Amino acid sequence: MKKIALEEHFWTEGFPHTGKVGADLFQPGFLRAIEAGFADFSARRIAAMDEAGIDISVLSLISPGVQAERDHGRAVSEAHRVNDFLSVEITKHPTRYAGFAHLPMQEPDAAATELERCVQQLGFKGALINGHTNGVYLDDARYLPFWERVQALAVPIYLHPVHMPVRPPVLADYPGLAASMWGWTAETGGHALRLVLSGLFDRFPKLSIILGHMGETLPYVLWRIDSRYKIYRPKVALERLPSEYIRRNFLATTAGACQSEALVCAIVALGADRIMFSVDYPLEDSAEAARFIEAAPISEQDREMICWGNAARLLRL
Predict the structure, then answer these.
(1) What is the pTM of this model?
(2) What is the mean pLDDT of residues 180-209?
(3) Coil, strand or helix at 289
(4) Is 157 helix (H, G, I), strand (E, B) or coil?
(5) Residue 153: in which H helix or E strand, if any?
(6) 109 among known catalytic residues
(7) Which of 86, 93, 284, 286 is the most exposed place for a label (fewest CB within 10 A)?
(8) What is the rounded end-to-end Cα distance, in angstroms, of the chain?
(9) What is the pLDDT of residues 292-316, one digit of tens each?
């Protein structure tokens, strides 16, 4: 079955992670493999796509990118540069690649302008934002004009993990625990809930937010989120229960989550029309992700929607 993959990463020269990503986390052999995968746009990446039956990969710059930059002017110029770079790479393989914009969230107005440029001029399908920007989360009031532009453009935002700005002691001392083993899920799921609890989706009800890794655990705790929301004093009075926004405004991908039980639960919690296939390349193996989705105990109608139908609809591919 053909597939569209949405959380597929690259890097280019000039960013803080280049040549350094994961040096203190990953085993050397794995680190060498992902470094080669991040940098390649031709033989290696397309061969992996072909083996997995992936027709289109939507490419995005791996975290943290310009969001770790302290110089706001440089963040704006570097985001523009990397988006132009990605656009050129897409034109070399226009039937195989699409793009998510990389945005300088230090400057919300500039980020909105760059998103509009990327969508309207470069043909990108939305943006991938690497979590917080130097400790500032996307529920901050400074981002309201940005979200207004996102809704007007009618494109999704992929909320991608990044390291916590302050590491709690419970995540210390164990390699990987503060990263993709658990910390990134806690960080990104918490970020998503900040958006819900801020009232963002009452202001902008047509926003679409994508979460990787089968929804960063949120589909499995919806009842508890609602139950606890009812007993706490809210910062903002919401028009709906939190779970209703998660079901209406969020979508989940299978990136980095090749587990049938999790997929079935996500389908029950969110609906098969809210789940999309992804790999998390090159951090995950494309062939393994393909074998997982093709063998998952779900209906063929659901499999078709998840593999490509939902993404084609959402991204207008």
Answers:
(1) 0.95
(2) 97
(3) helix
(4) strand
(5) helix 144-153
(6) no
(7) 93
(8) 16
(9) 999 999 999 999 999 999 999 999 9
